[in-house]
Amino acid sequence: MPTGNNRENSIRIAIEERGKAIISTQKSREDYRQYFTPPEIAALAASLFSSTSASLPLIDLGAGTGILGVYTALSVPTSSVTAVESDISLVEGCRRSLATLGLEYSVVCNDALDVSFDRDFGRAVLNPPYQKAVTDLTDDDGVTVRTPNLYAAFIVKAISLLSSKGELVAIVPRSWMSGAYYAPFRHYILSRCSLDSIIVLDSRTDAFSEFGVLQEICIVKLTKDGCQHLVSVAENHRIGDKPAFQPVELKQLLLGDDLVIATANVGGKQRATLAEAGFRASTGKIVMHRNGASATASKGRGVQVPLIQVENLSNGGVLHPAENPKKPQWLDAHGARNGLIPAGYYVLVKRFSPKEEKKRLRGFLLAAKEPVAVENHINILHAGTARSVVPLKRAQAERLLQWVNSSETESYFNSFASTTQVNAGDLNRLPLERGI
Ligand SMILES: C[S@@+](CC[C@H](N)C(=O)[O-])C[C@H]1O[C@@H](n2cnc3c(N)ncnc32)[C@H](O)[C@@H]1O
């Protein structure tokens, strides 16, 4: 392992080559997903490998300029580095970076999903391209797994290239942790590997913001055929800090089928979700371009019901009609059709929040004295089912309001919601506090 000046030289060249590539790939970045790992994150990823006395061969899929290979080889004993990169314009820079290590290395210019080698690797490190692409990959055991995104396909491929007990560290979006879309991939990972560590980067870290990538990123460490021990979890990690790992049993991270990384369940007990506890989140049924013809700004003649829009939600409650409304406030009862909800108490939650707003869950208490119509940009928490909306008791509504606005619920939500949208389905999956 290079030390002293050699080490500094390796880091200097790796950073230089990364900098050159950021400039040279401006045009191809979108096509190839060339978001190069910042040095601090490369060092953090490399620190997750177990230290061994034996030198092991390392593979980096989608290697870019090789920064991950460099930092890994500087962190753990490495016998060789094999980098696979499909963009020929990056190959020279990658070679220059890896050459500084004084180790056997090769840079293969090929599609990472097509490569094969006549040997196994002891470690894999990757920051793969993130791009929607459904791929069916068959691993070295003949198991076929469907991956919805290139990054997941790269992980399956890397696992295939590892020897048994080989370790993989990947920098990936956190979208794989939840939802039906990634379920086959998640099952595959958890059946083929032990999940050893996860670092979830603080969303404010904006790890790849220099490239305009605002996805929430995590760093995962897996061991192929590993025995599942406790998972080391570091949540809301800020670059530059030492990761504050907490050991957690895997089952504590599983909420149904999803992996949920949040302090709320670290060391906590299994709790019922909103839906399991007999409540329900449903989306408001009034869509303006469908029902809007019979909507008016001020109360007109005939049977009209209040129409609750996002602009009516303020100060934790609902103000209807809004002062100086920009949107219609009343709806012909006939126009509302089955979009009406009965009088009573509810908690309303905005479905969309501005990108720059860090808090995504915003609840408002609705005490409706008559049936009202709720517009489609709002979710309704109620005591009914997916088919029928039933009002809450007042005390329940007040407690649900506190719960939805709490920082604990927000942190849970952020741990699996991968868009800025707040879907009713995501709300139904949130664990509830006891006693609501
Ligand atoms: C997110 S960048 C990361 C680069 C590098 N690993 C790093 O950490 O800086 C992904 C890299 O994968 C490369 N890439 C994209 N599709 C690829 C493919 N099918 N096979 C191999 N490399 C690919 C891109 O050119 C890019 O360099």
Number of domains: 2
Bound molecules: S-adenosylmethionine
Q: Over all CA atoms, what is the radius of gyration?
A: 26 Å
Q: Which class best fits the helix and strand makeup?
A: alpha/beta
Distance between the termini: 57 Å
Quantity of strands, as a count: 24
What is the H level of CATH, i.e. the homologous superfamily of the largest domain?
Vaccinia Virus protein VP39
Name given to the CATH architecture of the largest domain: 3-Layer(aba) Sandwich
Content of β-strand: 25-35%
Detailed description of the structure:
This protein is 26% helix and 28% strand. It is built from 13 helices and 24 strands. Strands 3-2-1-4-7-9-8-10-11 form a nine-stranded mixed sheet, with helices on both faces. It has a five-stranded mixed sheet with strand order 15-19-16-23-20. α1 (4-24) packs antiparallel against α4 and α3 (39-46) packs across α4. The model has no long low-confidence stretch (mean pLDDT 89). The protein binds S-adenosylmethionine. S-adenosylmethionine binds next to α4 and β2.
Q: How do the strands and helices of this protein lay out in sequence?
A:
Blueprint: H1 4-24, H2 29-32, H3 39-46, E1 56-61, H4 67-75, E2 78-85, H5 88-99, E3 104-109, E4 121-126, E5 132-138, E6 144-149, H6 150-161, E7 162-173, H7 183-192, E8 193-201, E9 217-224, E10 231-237, E11 246-248, H8 250-253, E12 254-255, E13 258-259, E14 280-283, H9 288-291, E15 295-296, E16 304-308, E17 313-314, E18 317-318, E19 330-332, H10 333-336, E20 340-341, E21 344-350, E22 363-368, E23 372-374, E24 378-382, H11 394-405, H12 407-416, H13 424-428
The structure holds S-adenosylmethionine.
S-adenosylmethionine is lined by residues 32-37, 62-64, 67-68, 84-87, 90, 111-113, 127-129.
